User: Fold this.
Amino acid sequence: MDKIKDQANLVSQLVFSTETGDIYKKALTRTWDILRETGLLLWLVICLTFVGGEWFYRKSVKLGRDTRAWYEGLKTKDTATTNGQTMQSTGQALLNSVQSSTAYLLTQARKQLGLKEPEPTSTPPATSVSYSAPAAKPPVAPPPSSPTAPVPPPEIASVSDTDRSA
Assistant:
């Protein structure tokens, strides 16, 4: 029984000593610092990924526009179709909405990373792109007809019937 009391006193002295409180306080403070700095690091990596994606998007769009300009220069016809104009206006509306919605997020991410705003690049107006129609369309098959009543097969005369009538 004395052994248990001695051990209980030793444990209580360790747990309730001022050193133990200081050690746990330092451990919790250090853990909080680690978690806070790790969160900040993750946030900066997310911002960097977002800004890098925007950079890749700009380069891709520029490459696409340059390629389109090169391809359009190879064409000899400059006729536009209604379908091409509709697709172009829809694509332009989608592009404008995506650009306006990400502009704020990109600005905030750059501020978080301490980066300056990039210089605006000059882009050709998107409304001046023309689309030429394909040269020839393949013929379209008529729609299938509705089913009709079954037709009986033709009667075939036997060889012996043909000889009799001759």
Notes: The helical segments are 2-16, 18-74, 82-113, 159-165.
